[in-house]
Amino acid sequence: MENQEHKHHVRIHIDEKPYESPNPTTGEALYKLAHAQAGFELFREVRGDREDPGVPDDRDPIHLKEDEHFHTGPAQPKKFTIIVNGQKKVVTTKTVTFDEIVKLGFPTPPTGTNILYTISYEDGPPANPQGSLKEGGTVKVKNGMIFNVTATDRS
After folding, report:
1. What residues does 21 pair with on adjacent strands?
2. Which of 7, 9, 25, 138 has the most CB atoms around it within 10 Å of its CB?
């Protein structure tokens, strides 16, 4: 028997219309299937009085359930609460830069011409659960992600 990933199709509903989708799929594929217009976001419906979570428009795998429901709506402003050097900070983009995290970790930076910063992170999204952020780099964030920023003087 060959060892391969088994994909099958499931019926899902987007804006009350039925669609067939491979399972697993990606958010990127679901947005295309939904024909989501610019400025709109795809939401995965949940039961109860909880808010429907947004589906990221990316290539991370999404596992579907038969007859699961999604809907489109105006994109909501994003706010992510992250922890930088033990303090809660709010960012408004899904991706942050090295320089943005340094500024959050050191609002008043240490003085000196030879200051170097190192950034490590943990509790990140599935695409990058942990690691280090290099100067000039970017990283995807999620709520509760933890950043540790260290400043050293190389003199």
Report:
1. 10
2. 25
